[in-house]
Structures are given as structure tokens and as C-alpha cells.
Amino acid sequence: MNEKTSLETDFSRSIQIFFEHNVCFNGYTYLLIFGKHINGGFICIPNWKIGCEASTFTHSSGYNADKMEAAGLDRYAAEALADYIDKYMLSKGFD
């Protein structure tokens, strides 16, 4: 049987990418994409095969680090990248 996929709902207008940066930490590079979609925030690190839900609120680095660690990133890198996200968002006036 050949099942076909179909579009159920298009949320394309709801997506926002806050940034896409190469971030270096501890000798490694992480292509860090941070944004939000219809149901909340997301973090994607494609060169590490990491993707997870995230908080788009500032001062959420602990929560975001937990989510990245649960997705497979080591704790130290997750904390460093979560801090990077928080500092970036604060520098852009999000609070």
C-alpha cells in the first residue's frame, strides 16, 4: 500500500528565526539556530543532529540547557549555548 502525505495545517506565517550563528565552544563549532514556532521556541544544531523545544523568554538558560542535554548534547556545551542564547536575546532588548 502506498500512503501519501498531505498538508494538514500551514503555520509558516507563525515562524520566526531570531538568529543562526556559528558558535565556538571548547574547540568545537555549533551551528546554532534559535527561533519560535506556533507552539513556542526551538533550538536546532544541525551539525550535531540536535533539535529540541526551547523557551524564548530571557533568563531561561537552565531550561534550555536541560532540553539540549535531553536531546543528546553534553551538559557543558548545553549550558554554554543556553547562556549564549540568553545573552544574545538580552543584547537585542528581549527581557
- Distance between the terminal alpha carbons, to the nearest Å? 52 Å
Secondary-structure content class: alpha+beta
Gyration radius, in Å = 15 Å
**Relative strand content:** 25-35%
Mean pLDDT: 94
How many distinct domains?
A: 1
How is the main sheet built? 4 strands, antiparallel
Shape: globular
| Quantity of strands, as a count | 4
Explain what you see:
By secondary structure, this protein is of the alpha+beta class. It has one domain (14-91). The protein has two helices and four strands, in the order ββββαα. It has helices spanning 61-70, 75-91; strands at residues 16-25, 28-37, 40-45, 50-54. It has a four-stranded antiparallel sheet.
List keywords for this structure.
95 residues, alpha+beta, 4-stranded antiparallel β-sheet, 2 helices, 33% strand
Describe the SSE topology.
Elements: E1 16-25, E2 28-37, E3 40-45, E4 50-54, H1 61-70, H2 75-91
Antiparallel strand pairs: 1-2, 2-3, 3-4
Quick recap:
This protein has 95 residues and is α+β, with helices and mostly antiparallel strands.
